[in-house]
């Protein structure tokens, strides 16, 4: 079981604590996968959202879709995507991901109350993830998209339990104080 210090470490970056969860139903859309792999990602996403108690919807009234995943074989494919800079709010994203030889990149957008409004995942399947099993990759991506983890987490029962605890309706959708880790720890199964 994760203790409060371990939990705080999962949400602390550069000395700042941030634990935010989705404050609205999730509308996932996936681009760049073959149909058989797409079915796996959809099933894993549905299961993860159900475990967290987070509803899915057909459409988001403001954005249409709010959990977007883009799969490419090379980061340069993103350069052809219309309005990439407008979508991400980040100029030179393709050049930065190429220079860093990144396998994946995630961007969160937030509602006025601090809850997650949108999540964009960009995944380069031409590099180290080329041989990744679709179900394992899907589980990893969805888990990392459900909370604002400060570092990459791997799928595990502990992380799944933590995500479920964070979606307790009695907890706020966003917390900036490390004491929130105590509240999360208290909700984990013994």
UniProtKB/TrEMBL annotation:
Q: What is this protein called?
A: PAS domain-containing protein
Q: Which organism is it from?
A: Paracoccus broussonetiae subsp. drimophilus
């Amino acid at each position: 079981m994760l203790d409060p210090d371990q939990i705080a470490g999962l949400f602390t970056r550069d000395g700042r604590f941030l634990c935010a969860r989705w404050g609205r139903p999730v509308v996932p859309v996936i681009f760049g996968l073959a149909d058989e792999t797409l079915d796996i990602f959809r099933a894993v996403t549905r299961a993860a959202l159900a475990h967290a108690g987070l509803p899915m919807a057909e459409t988001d009234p403001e954005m249409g879709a709010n959990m977007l995943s883009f799969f490419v074989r090379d980061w340069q494919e993103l350069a052809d995507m219309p309005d990439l800079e407008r979508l991400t709010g980040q100029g030179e994203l393709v050049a930065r991901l190429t220079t860093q030889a990144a396998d994946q990149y995630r961007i969160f957008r937030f509602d006025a109350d601090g809850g997650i409004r949108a999540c964009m995942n960009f995944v380069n399947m031409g590099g180290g993830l080329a041989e990744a099993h679709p179900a394992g990759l899907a589980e990893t991506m969805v888990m990392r998209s459900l909370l604002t983890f400060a570092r990459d987490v791997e799928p595990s029962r502990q992380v799944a339990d933590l995500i479920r605890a964070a979606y307790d309706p009695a907890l706020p959708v966003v917390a900036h104080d490390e004491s929130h880790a105590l509240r999360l720890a208290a909700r984990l199964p013994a």
